Amino acid sequence: MTQAFASDWDVPVKTRLTGFDLITQPMLNKGMAFSQSERDMFRLHGLLPPHIATIEEQAERRLRVLRAFSTDFERYAFLRDLQDTNETLFYAVLVRHIEELLPLVYTPTVGEGCQHFSEIWRKPRGVFLSYPNKDRIREILADPRFDRVRVIVVSDGERILGLGDQGAGGMGIPIGKLSLYTGCAGIHPELTLPILLDVGTNNRERLTNPLYIGWRHERIVGAEYDAFVEEFVSAVIERWPDVLLQWEDFAGSNASRLLAKYRDRLCTFNDDIQGTAAIAAGTLMAAINVTGVKLTEQRIAVLGAGSAGCGISSLLLRAMVDAGLSEEQARSAFYLVDRNGLLVDGMEGITPAQMPFVQDRHAISDWVVDEAGDIGLLEVVRNAKPTVLIGVSGQAGAFSEDVVRAMAEGVRHPVIFPLSNPTSRSEAVPQHLMEWTDGRALIGTGSPFPPVQWQGRDIPVDQTNNSYIFPGVGLGVLAANARRVTDAMFMVAGKVVASMSPTATDRNARLLPPVDQLRAVSLAVARAVAVQAQADGVAEACDQATLDRRLQELVWEPTYRPYELVK
């Protein structure tokens, strides 16, 4: 069976499958929406109730069931089952109710989905490449079902959100991410493939759980791990030379290293590093519409100096240099705080990614600190008086009242982004941030939060989430036929999101476009990314009309098509 896209939605799907074999295929199943003639042709009478439904009726029926559950995890499991039963209906519900369903399909609920993935696993989706099958990777990926794949999201499950090692349960992340590629950017599900590199787990709960579905072995590391990843990447390049590969939720010790190793060998990026950086930069640029503090005048404190924190800092540094600062001036504006305190020169264990953001000890020699040695976040805030505070530490409550109040004393409108996921790992609760800053904070969070109550008003909390970035980046890469992904493509993605901020016309408005506009945001990001790919020399040049046609052809709307029986 071959699916079609925007240019041929009305062209019938041709298939040899009939009866039960047909309706058990998620991408083919229409449920009760099969027409009378299709029921005759494909021998579906008796397998389906007699009522012939529209997709709108089906969506309403599913929503009623969804909303009746008592917990979000139950809703997550229900949606996963719907995706594995009737994929078109799943996306019809997701696209039309994206604001309601985004927190269920992805963060924060996907975190719980990963923790309990073994308990709710029912039907195959994606590919598990386990270490014992390291010599079968090419054979597994050769399946004809994967012939049309153009986007892969891969994880090894070691650093799932802020929850740590979930082993094979980490497959929930690639599945969820690719659902957003389709739901937000319209990339057809047949073009996507979630992959989990099952190299074991060090999570004792998983290893001792009799229901755990993964390889029961401690994680392989070092040369064995690298050889396994190399075998995987080589097989991917051989199977799909033009694929877009997204690395997702790898531990910090591997994330930056793997990106650097492979970014010039295939079209690839790491969303935790580059996507997080782009949305943080875009949201900060939107906040400037309110604060009036130029990008070149920002002082940025980052709690968490791993791959995400360094990725955010690197992109913002480049933006500040582009805005007119020298690189030395821009570097001095960053204060990265890790588990051992502020990064300063001479500190042991500084990684290459952290090196550009190490503070000169002489520059901070006049700081007032409680005691010599490690300089904590509170001391950084009191002395550096940052205009921006970003959290990617995974430490719930790390933005304490003392820290936030100290920040509010230093600037009129403190910009505070507790970005760690899921909600349980957020560095601060938005309601507290608003109270501790007397209503002056500009807030962006990694996971969704309810509106903040302030002086009789409900103030929506902007979800500074990568879903504003990566679906559009993926669509732009596909439309441009880009050979590589550049940092400039993420920079322009962040700028596009900032340009669509409601604060551009109303300083009292929210920082980011509403979530229900994610499809429009993704399309705008895709156009800009495709143009930037051409400017960067990683895609062949084409005119705007050609690019717009390619985008239109790629964007799939989840509607049912007529079927024809192939005899």
TrEMBL record:
The Malic enzyme NAD-binding domain is annotated at: 273-534
Q: Domain (Malic enzyme N-terminal): give its ranges.
A: 83-263
Q: Which domain of life is it from?
A: Bacteria
Keyword Translocase attributed: no
Q: What Pfam families would the database entry show?
A: malic, Malic_M
Supply the InterPro entries for this chain: Aminoacid_DH-like_N_sf, Malic_enzyme_CS, Malic_N_dom, Malic_N_dom_sf, Malic_NAD-bd, Malic_OxRdtase, NAD(P)-bd_dom_sf
Tell me which cofactor or cofactors this protein depends on: Mn(2+)
Going by the UniProt record, its keywords in alphabetical order are: Metal-binding, NAD, Oxidoreductase
Q: Which SMART domains match?
A: malic, Malic_M
Belongs to which family? Belongs to the malic enzymes family.
The cross-references to NCBIfam families, in alphabetical order and at most eight, read: PRK13529.1 (NF010052)
| Protein name listed in UniProt | NAD-dependent malic enzyme
Organism listed in the record: Dyella acidiphila
Lineage runs:
Bacteria, Pseudomonadati, Pseudomonadota, Gammaproteobacteria, Lysobacterales
